[in-house]
Amino acid sequence: MNILITGAKGQLGSQIMNIIKDGKSELGAIPTQVAEAKVIGIDIKDLDLTDLKAVRLYLKELKPDVVINPAAFTNVDACETSIDTAFKVNALAARNMAMVCEEIGAKLIHISTDYVFSGVGTVPLKEHDMTAPVSIYGKTKLAGENFVREFCSKYFIVRTAWLYGYNGKNFVYTIMNAAKEKGHLTVVDDQRGNPTNAEDLAHHIVKLAVTEDYGVYHCTGEGECSWYDFAKAIVEYSGINCTVDPITSEQLVNRAAKRPAYSSLDNMMLRCTVGNEMRDWKEALKEFINKINV
């Protein structure tokens, strides 16, 4: 099996590379086909995913059996002012990958987001629930999903949320650094979702790669919380002497994009197909912090 991973230097792409190299994740062994696969990781300097001709040439020469596509423009506020760039990276690049995967018969695992939903509600969202994004980031990611559905027959669309991993910038590192520096933080408590450890997400992505259980998946940490709850847990598990107080989203300044107030996801498709092994968000967070504090 040949596997191509885009965004290989990002927190998810690098995590997928690492567990394939190790043949296991924190959740256990990964499929033998994946562990023994030839894996190529590329990043933005290696291939412009928004260039259809370049993508076609590269993939037709490489002939991957599976393409895993975490690459995206994820700066939510910057997307509001760089709309064309957001569309090219989040939508057209997905279209290009889908078209060429179909041409070469490859499976496509495309990573998407909770931002495709409106944020209105109180019940965890299932894969079949109606999408209605409220930001440019969410709208361009949904456009990417739609291109994947339209142009590729062997696809997995995997939506995740509130992702943190060992490599790169994320909320956990940001809170830990700010807590050490300031000793007091204020964090919004009126947005709820699912913190997701990239290790858990990577494990389920490679599980899907060896199946033909195509479709749309939600893959997030079990249980939900607010950003305030998440921050408090980070500070507590890190043993940092810092107080954390709640604020409302309206009290934040310099945020161009609207965030979904409620975007908790239900991993229904995982339960119904390959199995849902996603850890409770607190358990996964404790393991993450214990590892980085060694």
From TrEMBL:
Organism: Clostridium amylolyticum
InterPro entries in the record: dTDP_dehydrorham_reduct (IPR005913), NAD(P)-bd_dom_sf (IPR036291), RmlD-like-bd (IPR029903)
Keyword Transmembrane helix in annotation: no
Enzyme class name: oxidoreductase
UniProt-recorded name of the protein: dTDP-4-dehydrorhamnose reductase
GO BP terms, alphabetized: dTDP-rhamnose biosynthetic process
Entry EC no(s): 1.1.1.133
Pfam families: RmlD_sub_bind (PF04321)
Keyword set, alphabetical order: NADP, Oxidoreductase
Family named by the database record: Belongs to the dTDP-4-dehydrorhamnose reductase family.
A cellular-component GO term for this protein: cytosol
Function text: Catalyzes the reduction of dTDP-6-deoxy-L-lyxo-4-hexulose to yield dTDP-L-rhamnose.
Domain of life per record: Bacteria
